[in-house]
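**User:** My hope is that you can spare some time for a protein that puzzles me. I have put the entry right below:
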Amino acid sequence: MRTNILIVGGKGMVGKTIHRILQTRNPDFKIFIGSRKKEISEYDLMIDVDKPETFKPVLNRNINLIILAVNDKQDHILKFAIDNGIDYIDITKPTPDLVKALAKAENNKITSRIVFGSGWMGGLVGGLLKVLYPDIKNILEVKVYVYYSTKDLAGESSAYFMAENVAKPFINYQNNRQISVRHFLNSEDFRYSFGIGKRQAYNFDVPDLYILNKVEKIPTVNVKMTYDSKSITWLLGAFQKMRIFDILSLKQRRSIFGSSGNGDQSVFEIVIKNHLGEKKLSLQSEKGQAELTALAASLHAEILVKNELENKIYFAHQIHNPENLFQSLSEYEGITIETTNI
């Protein structure tokens, strides 16, 4: 049976990249594009995530899998997938929206595979940390260090998330205690790999904080971020310390975070501690975060299509064999992964 996949938000930056990667790797997949734009070909569907009445044509295309690559605040696409027994992958949600969507899904009978891939870079962190320590229950602490380049071709979603949430506190986990923190405070020195060097890294909220503590029961989880520009990183910290973000309008905050370049590397590093010591995994994507996120979504989709997984709710890292995930990423052009003992 031919696989029919729908990418909702398929004309956005990440959506288009998912389409390209997935079709290149799997020419036998039939891929439809859902967006608010007018239909041009038989593979285009006019879908507005805020208007469930526009979803009806999906059933006529015998869609097997929906990949959500656009913000769906009300979870209409999630409900549609559950109600109609369609496999679903979501890579879009910040932590509060993920928690809300998870609660909605858990209150329904699940007759398909529902995958939340909203961690950093499409939910790769959870799978990769198992490469270093397969026995995840013995991990005491995970720290993720993100390098974000203002020159990266990142699109609107990352900028809009920061603009909407920069003035709101979020939760870090210290020995299973919830610690309320804010973005760009509590700086820490970290020496990044791939020639980046020593940087000040600041608090940053990603869904992995919630997933690794609440789902995988890792007692201490922190995420820190630095920008490619040391002056920008320092300035954002100063703005937060002086509470300037609190008085700026959403439009003004979007203007601060809304720049997008022509392309640059994306880097994140995972430092894991257990009773035996510390290990580090460093990943560099020379093609940037949109490419890496889209690749993650594509790998998730391939797992669902090619494997007989039980119908239930998953986080993205739970559907992968860690070694296979590591190999798939390592073999992709422009990706370098290094592992070291600390």
User: Anything to note?
Assistant: The first helix runs from residue 13 to 25.
